[in-house]
Amino acid sequence: MVSYVKERGTVSLPSSIATKAVGLVSGEGLPPLFLEAKPGAFANVEDASDWVGENRPTLDRLIEEHGVIVLRGFPLQTSADFGRLGAKFPVFDGNYQGGAAARRSLDKGVYEATQRTGDQTIYIHQEMFYVRDYPPRIAFFARKVAETGGETIIADMAKVTRLLPVPIRKKLEQHGVLVIRNFAPPSGSNVETRLMDRRGWEFAFYTDSREEVDEVCRHRGMEPHWHDDGSLTVFSRLPAFVVHPTTGKEVYRTALHTNARTKADMEHDEEAKQLLASQKIPSAMVLGNGEPLNPEEELALARLVDDATVYWKWQQGDVMILDNLQIGHGRNPFVGERATDLQMFN
After folding, report:
1. Is there a domain that residue 68 lies in?
2. Residue 271 lies in a domain
3. Is 36 helix (H, G, I), strand (E, B) or coil?
4. Would 332 be classed as within a structural domain?
5. Per the domain annotation, does 340 fall within a domain?
6. Given the DSSP bridges, would you call strands 319-323 and 68-72 parallel, antiparallel or unpaired?
7. Does the pLDDT value for residue 244 go beyond 90?
8. Arithmetic mean of pLDDT, 114-134
9. In the predicted model, is pLDDT for residue 39 greater than 80?
10. How many domains does the chain have?
11. Which domain, by its residues, includes 86?
12. Per-residue pLDDT band at 240 (split at 50, 70, 90)
């Protein structure tokens, strides 16, 4: 069951940052750790960014310890402000070519978050779970909070890993995961569609060159398959677990748990069913041997991730920085305008 973080209490912070911020956690000890700026702590964006840079080692430790931190009450208003603060972290040395949801660039190193219509839930996942190389950390900026809903949800994937049923773990360890994704022929549009498989490959790969797409796929460990109509199917064969670079612990890194939810959604979505039926090689997430988990196993995985998921009421200007292995993220449906920015860090 997804939990709403509502009871918060103060926690002691390292002295280096306690002069500027108050530490808050949920009463249940669930992530995230909120670092709320004290009144008048920062004169402007430059002041806040300099503070982040000076305290990077401490912030890095807190991100690893809690999985995720939320900077609240910092003087950020624009994508450029977010970019200036994010520049204090090492930039991910990859890019978003071949991403699942094509993103427009908003500022240097700043992308728009996934643009899906407000009626849709974005289920818990780790950023770029479908490729070999992924950003170790990511950050979100609430540039405009939706009128209703739209909260970014997070899940403790380290907890999910610990509680995986043994039969499912054995299958994942033995076979790994195969992710099959589809891209439409070039459309000339950079506006995200309601169904991701309808976006043109030139938008997702930021190029209209097939040769460059092939090179990106080779570099990222993906296998491209071109169709006569100009559409593209991409295969990614991946392990289901990754060893965390600093904790040394194995972490579940895949989105097989979303299958049960997306299949249930599709039962009420005729457009999605027709699209899937029309694909020469249907989009899917299965075990590496090509076989799916059985429905009971898929539902067990979905419930396990739900039980590790929390959300809270977002405030304008919130910045969430998370460990992209330990913490998965998603989004609740929403009403009204919503604008959220993304950065990726090493």
Report:
1. yes
2. no
3. strand
4. yes
5. yes
6. antiparallel
7. yes
8. 89
9. yes
10. 1
11. 3-92+105-150+312-345
12. very high
Question: What own/partner pairs with CB < 8 Å and gap ≥ 24 does 157-160 have?
Answer: 157/126, 157/251, 157/252, 157/253, 157/308, 157/325, 157/326, 157/327, 157/328, 158/67, 158/249, 158/251, 158/326, 159/308, 160/252, 160/257, 160/304, 160/305, 160/308, 160/328
Residues 159-182 have a mean pLDDT of 97
In order of 34, 60, 243, 248, 318, the CA distances from 66 in angstroms are: 10, 10, 18, 16, 17
Residue identified by tokens 């998921």 is: 309
Nearest residue to 6 (alpha-carbon basis) of 310, 329, 215, 289: 310
CA distances (Å), origin 156, targets 5, 6, 72, 153, 280: 14, 17, 21, 11, 36
Tell me the CATH number at 340.
Answer: 3.60.130.10
Tell me, what DSSP letter sits at residue 91? B
In angstroms, rounded to a whole number, what is the distance separating the alpha carbons of residues 212 and 226?
A: 13
Q: Phi and psi dihedrals of 280, rounded to 5?
A: -65, -40
Higher pLDDT, 117 or 73: 73
pTM for the structure as a whole: 0.94
Identify whether the C-beta of residue 314 lies closer than 8 Å to the C-beta of residue 150: yes
